[in-house]
## 1
Amino acid sequence: MKKMVLGSLLASLLSAPVLAYESGEFLLRSGAITVSPDVNSSALALGDVTLDGTAADVNNGSAISLIGTYMLNQSWGLEVIAATPFSHDLKVSGLGETFDLGETKHLPPTVMLQYFPFASSSTVQPYVGVGFNYTVFFEEKISGTANDIFADLGATDSADLKLKNSSGIAAEAGVDFSFGADKRWLFNVAVWWMDIDTKATVDIPGVGSVTANVELDPLVYAAGLGYRF
Ligand code: NI
């Protein structure tokens, strides 16, 4: 029964007249967005000494997205992804128990060229895209736990964490579902893969500088509502 209702709903959705995706149209989408890193970390190095068996890890971070697409014509769009800052916790493993190293915020402004293969009048608009991402890390903080551990190692003061900004390619797939009066409202889901790599540096006064190369290469998931202007 549910299937039939869903089926007829979908059929009416698909057959309803709709304003076409066309040149000069601007689509604005907003909702929840999550950055889920697929972390690949080098071993930590203290100066020139590699600390075998150690690694850094980064957990997921969520934010509110603001995603705009400017339609260049009926099939091609230019997308800009913005969001409120993401916050991620960082962990270190291999130095005794895994511990919280600290946290960082980041913003990953991204520009994508998008291709919409369906007829411009379709209420369902899947798309794929390729583009460029620049990720800015800021407000990096070392945790109290980490500072306690560093103190045991001979640190003379609080440590300082820095993450190097990253630039790289991005790819995406998504879909807009039109609804409402004039079909100007959208429900949107999208996923991106972004090449985000960074170098983490922890300066520990009295001990030295600990570094790790960390590939984040996250999948980024977004779901939200949009409007076509
Ligand atoms: Ni990478």
## 2
Amino acid sequence: MGIDVQKEKLTLGERLPAHVGIIMDGNGRWATKRGMPRAFGHRAGTERLRGIIRLSSDLGIKALSLYAFSTENWKRPKAEVEALFGLFMEYFTNEVEELHANNVRIRMLGDKAGLPANVRTSVIAAEEKTAGNSGLSLNVALNYGSRSETVRAVKKLAEAAALGELDPGKIDEDMLLSSLDTGGLPELDLLIRTGGDQRLSNFLLLQAAYAEFAFVDALWPDFSDELYMDSLRDFAQRNRRFGGLK
Ligand code: IPE
Ligand code: IPE
Ligand code: MG
């Protein structure tokens, strides 16, 4: 059964989140349950991306931030890390054309300096190619950790201060937030984590200050368009107070 996007749009109306983050967890367990190697789960996970990106774009969500590889994921066995980077390369090589045709703007969140050179080159090419697009902002968090992102942001500000370009006394919340990798994107409204765990694992810590959370038991390769719609409908019912009274 497909989703009736026009109907869903009407129902969600103003309550559609502008920026959704997803911690795509559970690929390994999905494969293990099937007696398959973990890399098989990562491939199945990649295949789920197309549908979720498409639906986000069709609904009119402005920004979608996907956690693909954390600064802590380097602790995994070398073979698994290599399989993951192989998939990222494949993704950035094969999918960019179609995303571009759909007016999607690709951006990487995370530390580019720590990426293998071939991946870094493909990521930068995808960013440059789609930089002028005005549709969905698709943010892929690769070698991303919120603490590492914060350190890089603080260094940028400190360097500008040391050069005399910035008065440290003028540093405010807006300046810090716009120095993060998500600078210029709308506030994070909804953060979804699949796979049943209820933690952030170093994803968008500052951006999530007033985000709503959806912890979903489904493993990422099983996170269907219908389950995504359930999270969006549930979000639309939440009473967000932002510290005030309502
Ligand atoms: C998420 O799935 C993908 C990455 C972290 C790269 P996992 O690989 O963490 O899958 P589980 O949590 O072990 O099932
Ligand atoms: C979070 O999942 C990172 C990604 C989904 C890319 P992990 O599987 O790495 O998180 P932990 O280790 O369970 O906290
Ligand atoms: Mg996991």
## 3
Amino acid sequence: MLGLMQDWPLTVDRIIDHARSWHGGIEVVSRSVEGPMVRTTYREIHGRAKQLSNALLSLGVLPGDRIATLAWNTGRHLEAWYGIMGIGAVCHTLNPRLHADQLCYIINHARDKVIFTDLTFLPILIEHRAKLDCVEHLVVMTDEAHMPADFPALCFETLLAQHSADCAWGGFDENTAAGLCYTSGTTGDPKGVLYSHRSNFLHTLGTMGADVLGISARDVVLPVVPMFLANAWGVAFSAPAAGAKLVMPGQHLDGASVHELIETEGVTFSAAVPTVWRMLLQHLRETGGQLSTLTRVVIGGSAVPEDMVRAFRDDYGVTVTHAWGMTETSPMGTQSSPNRAVAAMDAEEQLRYRLKQGRPPLMIDLKLVDDQEQVLPHDGQASGRLKVSGPFVVREYFREAERDILAADGFFDTGDVATIDDQGYIQITDRAKDVIKSGGEWISSIEIENLAAAHPKAAMTAVVAIPHPKWDERPLLLVQLKPDERADRSEFLQFLDGKIARWWMPDDVVFVDHIPLGATGKIDKKLIREQFKNHVVQPIAAGLSPEEPNAEEAPADAPGPFPPEAAGASPARASTLTMVALSGALMGAYLWRSFGPARR
Ligand code: ADP
């Protein structure tokens, strides 16, 4: 027997419809790419998105066509986003931080028909256009005054002005594809995650929970995390769904720009990766600035360092929620909001939980398994591969139907190594490919680098495995010092001494000018491993050397004396990144047709 309730497909056009109808006057403020602040409302965004839908239809866009955006977080990007999805086309957000070859590969793999680009990225597209064999139109997200003089492209504002806001949205199955986002390729070839309207809608509902993002109509929300990183962690949906004022930062994500926006617009809630918050905190320290309205920040994408949580809490009265997720989970997987038991603990005890990646919300199920797929206990000790399942978790990668990515139990292997404690909090100790396997035992690179990052002279730290003849791999600590600081290796080793097991002690400390970051703002460990694969370890002062391990410190269940002999230790999995560098050979197929209609 079926229920007798209304059939109301969960399509994302309903989110912006709701914002127009019930929060129509709420502001969306953008720092535009051209420079000035632009103030608009959900009502105007809705109308312009409909005009854009009509423009796309006039260009011959059909349901299911992939329409790409290469853009910062702005009101225009939001209009393109809803205008594309509303007519059943697929909004493919491109990450401009990727290498141009990777971008071209992704555009061609997705068969993007139209690209919406900010002025910022026009030069990249112009330079590499010969490699794109599917793109028919390029739309520059600006007005006529800022259009390039002699390049065949359409002008966003002109296109809108030519079309009415009378357009029917939706009316299709809620499982229709809505968005496409490729993983950055830090763990292999870029893979397309194809979100559906239903998965985005459910993710929005899931993240609106009080223990998740908890965005409300009283909030002023600043998504610093870009829309090209898994839908700005869903904020581009949840802010209009809640009726929150939205502040779009555009291209300037440095500490001073973010601070100015927070203070002038009264931001209460923001979300970003640790790198962005590091820049903001540094700016505040240098200028003596305050955060007068901000109360909550969500930090994710990589592990949040302890000193960052403390600084927000103690110096600025801001609560940090640590979140874990991935493109494949839409992306919110867990959040470190306290439950009743944790909330009853004192501040220092609570901090231990805030530093973990947290608990799954409804619609996310997690499993921790060992190499034999045996489920591991939630004791905070057993560490294994984290698997995930739910209605907004990937089932299959785009155009890779032959590749089976779900195990027999229907779970997706995240590639992360974690523990789960008795409160249900997960802690990510590493990515499976970044984990350091020393003498058959796992060393958490994340834990060491976060502890080292709390050293007062450290701006950023990274820990990677370097090959070792006896133990297979040993940790190497890279330190980027704060400007004008000087330090020697022993300072850092002494700082770590007592905080980690002796056998976790890095074999060496190397000071670098810059720790390389990948396209999603995470430390590019693959590159570092490659750079330091032949690193010759310099002898370190007696007493701090990991070569004098203390058997007592080995974990109780360590196999044999510590570190155990390397026999049986599996070799580190080689990276599978085989990015296809596209050649000019595709030139003949180049289809850019915008030349004619471009400058009407
Ligand atoms: P990519 O895989 O292309 O780098 P994602 O943004 O999808 O892009 O990365 C997801 C991965 O980022 C997770 O599998 C995990 O390894 C890491 N990650 C995300 N959030 C956290 C966090 N809070 N702590 C530690 N690692 C995290």
